[in-house]
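Quick start: what a row looks like.
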Amino acid sequence: MRKRSHRSRAVVAVVSAALLGVAGCDSAGGTSPAPDGTRAKAKPSATPTSAWDSSPASLAAVGDSITRGFDACSVLSDCPEVSWATGGDKDVNSLAVRLLGATGAASRSWNYAVSGSRMADLPAQMTQAAVRKPALVTVMTGANDACRASVAEMTSVADFRSSFEKALRTLRTAAPRSQVYVASVPDLKRLWSQGRTNETGKAVWKLGICQSMLADPDAVDAAATTRRDEVRDRVEAYNSVLKEVCATDRLCRFDGGAVFDFDFGASQLSPWDWFHPSRDGQARLAEMAYRGVTGRKAVT
């Protein structure tokens, strides 16, 4: 690993050149036995039903940059190979690989997530996913709705709900038998707390990533604290919407807040921006999803 000063200059230079093509925070949006973060204790919630298949035969993923593996492999780049949902990277051991095996994941899983997307973009992604008639659709989106240039620009809870309901209706119209697994929106304030100790990460943040939460990362005055708390409250409201709307669909499961509750540590965060999940972070997401979909302990 290069010395910090050299690496910081290199990362900032690359980010400065590419930043005009990146909007918002692009979201934030393994199997090693001792991650820095602690495993979430929340259990997935679902409308009781015997119809749920814990061994789905195909999988489509929708969402934002987390599901695209953004900044997990190189700076300001998607890396779907390490996606928690559909990636083939053996260290991540994605949900698709755990459910379908490596060969099955390569032929029967599809990634329709788009970096930078918000909940309003989910219906269009669902339209694409429904064409495949997947047995399971994974959803992880909402971080970019809170990650805006300012608190005032965050997506309203009402609009967030309307878009999510529309996305589920879109799927049900075209693929009524597809199951849906919904991951909660990560705790952006916890990510700020972890990353603010890293000078390289803060240099990248100051160039425009998730300013509603990450602007003035060292500020801890009343105004900055209030601003961050407003973002966190909005994320919690989004997660309540995900839980409530999902509960109205007998083939939908919410993760019970597992992703929100997960304590991402240094090794689970991107070395490029200290905000998006790293390979190890992607692996933890895959592990949580596997437990949520199957009700079993994660496979290694």
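That is the whole record. Residues 1-41 have pLDDT under 50 and may be disordered. Strands lie at 45-46, 59-63, 109-111, 136-140, 179-182, 252-254.
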